[in-house]
Amino acid sequence: MYRLEEIKRAARGMWSLVVGLNITGKYFLQPNVTIHYPRQEVDNLATFRGHIELIPEDNDSLTPRCISCGTCAKACPSGCITVTKKKAPAPTPEEVEQGVKPKAPKDPETFRLDFTLCSLCGQCVMSCPANAIRFSQNINIAGYSRQDFQFDLVARLRSRLPKHVKKAE
Amino acid sequence: MFTKEQIAERGFYTQHFEQGKQDNSLILNMGPQHPSTHGVLRVMLEIDGEYILRADPVLGYIHRMHEKMAEGKTYAQFITNMGRVDYLHALAWNWAFVGAVEKLGETPPSPRAEYLRVITCELNRISSHLLWWGAYLLDLGAFTPILYAFDDREELLDILQDLTGSRLTYASFTFGGVVTDMSDALKERITRFIARLRDRLPMYKSLVTDNFILLGRVEDIGHIPVDMAVRYGATGPVLRGSGVAYDVRRAEPYSVYPGLDFVVPTSDRTDALGRYLVRMQELEQSLNIVEQAVAQIPAGDIQAKMPKKPKVPAGEVFFAVEGARGKIGCYLQSNGSGSPYRVKLRAPSFSNLSLFAELSQGTLLADAVSILGSLDLVIPEIDR
Amino acid sequence: MIDPQLLRILVALVGILVFVALNALALVYAERKIAGHVQRRPGPYEVGPHGILQPLVDGLKLMGKQLTTPKDADPVIFWLAPIMCFMPVALCMLPIPFGPNLVALKLDLGIVLILAFAGFGVLSLCLAGWGSNNKWSLLGAARSVAQNVAYEIPLLLSVLSVAFMTGSLDLATISAGQGALPWQWNALLNPLGFIIYFICALAETNRAPFDLPEAESELTAGFHTEYSGMGFGLFFMAEYANMVVVCSVATVLFLGGWNGPFAPGWWWFLLKMYALIFLIIQIRWTYPRVRFDQLLNLCWRWLVPLALVNLVYVTIIVKL
Q1: How far apart are the CA of A122 and the nearest CA of chain C, in angstroms?
Q2: Counting one residue from B and one from C, how many pairs have CB atoms under 8 Å apart?
Q3: Closest in C37, C42, C45 to A28, CB measured
Q4: d(C-alpha C61, C-alpha C260), whole Å
Q5: CA nearest C214: which of C144, C151, C127?
Q6: pLDDT tens column, C204-226
Q7: Which domain holds residue A103?
Q8: A83 and A10 within one domain
Q9: ipTM beyond cut 0.90
Q10: Are B122 and B163 in contact (CB under 8 A)?
């Protein structure tokens, strides 16, 4: 009886192997699901966290909204942000006459991001009082040296707007 | 085999490992670079032929002192670390820490955020179990299942990326809420995913679970009797695979789990197959939970009204959530300043790993690999 | 004046070596492509159209790599092993009839030659494991010896059953003895023998689910843990060459060789051989690995008794 039971079990086992072959065979004939990256691109990037970038003013796409307060630099757990304020311009002759000191512009001189340290946690984005930082959707980021990932976000904003923003405009 | 006294005398630990060696046995280092230790776990084995006389896990290869790091960071800054403790179920760890802070400050999150947390956390649990499933079968020598699992997991990660912004090391919970809201389109997508995975689970079953060869590799391997599991403090599917229906979501209810209808799957088999089956059933249960949460989610803000920097009163608190591997606990002591005074993280993998030394004694090398896989270890979580 | 028989053998040997080497390259590509499609990914894709040049480029890379000998290894044994593992393959292919007259070496005892040299492969695995002076390699070597020695027996018995049916040990006679139509082939007249042969062939070639000597999740890479460059490359090629051999033998013994429902010829032989190879590859990408004791249990408790029963069945039923 024991033998019989064992033979039955073995037969069922053999059948389970055939079922397995059937499944892999079926998938073999189906088209594959790979996205061939450089030729095709993924599209679901709406909330993707790339490196951070500065949001420009509504009416001026070259000046960042940033008010150089440095909250983001303090909030960052890795210390990868350094903001330098703009110096006040030299007073014009009229201002000298009136005795008013010119105000320094609010937007930063430089906004340095060391992306090699960044862990994309979003503390800077959440802490910003001026809503001036957002995550970019830049997935094509690669470089040959560490220096390639030391961004100046102000210069970046001025030099080249990311593709998707250009498209939207 | 050695008695406890002999082990104490000769020294069981790594630096004395060679001393207790028997004649004609072989000391073998499994890891830290070994395909089936899933990362940088090192297990010292004394083997006779292929039989394991004793095994000794050696930890610490990926110790990153997360607990100490907490003391130098603000509360908000430390959330980022939590995504890196257990990279497979990062959201549960997010939740454990955020929950502890909220519990101490008595500032509950907004109702919508509670549901969003449940949805993301359960989806994350599914992704973790799917990865375990594939990796376990890889340990057992089947290559294809992991890619089928990744096919499903890819869809899941796309959803989680929409909800949290990241694909692996999430940091999407804030004190009192979550970062991103769920759109209606995403709701649709989650519903579609639930249907899709439910369609796929029978295929998983007939390709793998029913497979004759697989059953031979997991049946009657690594028996963990209840008392042994309790003795080592095992939790999660490892404990439930021994027949104890202990689930933090039911035992110490938190968030909106009491209002959701799900069962805690258990298995009385106590072997590797039991743990395997429990995890496969948990996949279905998590799908149920997500389905209900998506249906019941209330409208409203995703962030409760709170100051941007949480004011955490002095005191201590322990908050536990159910992770994919077991009970994830966060003990937090605050002295009222801006950063935690002390954080202690309870990692389920650590307790589950401690079972291994006793479990693997007298088994074959191949069985030890199967046992190690069935415990579902994440090494960074063990070392923290 | 050179003996024309010798010349014929030499030409055939070169032809066979080229055939086996080309097949090994093609099969590396086929394996990866099939694995890819089973897993719903494209497999090698970037080198050449659909990655067709991938095995060539991989081969070049392996050849370009430095050959390192582990510190305490025995260099002679260590390097002898990969060279040795290729030799029996060429010899085993000699007596195989690809077509009615397409055979390198006409032998009355073709099966015996093949069986004699098939056991040779395990020696190189054993030497590789022993010579590496690595604990994982040693375990792999021990496994491969136990496995191959055990599986020789049912393999022999199942081949014997075919010899009983045909009454000959000559492969050409066995091929010719089977009819044109599938139900006249030995695989259907003697299904148990075919299944046993097939399982043993998987085990003899160390293919999944019996790839225990190199079980990478248990023994990192088993007997070839310490090999790099072309040392590894030769083991890799030998695995595929062995597949060609066992599938060729299976085609001759069980699937009617060059016979086919219409237009018999070597193309039928190749078609059947590649179909079998495809099955072996698909099996690898479907099943988990068996455990070592299960492997030996399967052999001694199931295959050997079944093969003996089958032998009795063949002698009584078929011959009467």
Answers
A1: 34
A2: 76
A3: C37
A4: 41
A5: C144
A6: 888 878 887 777 777 777 788 88
A7: 52-168
A8: no
A9: no
A10: no
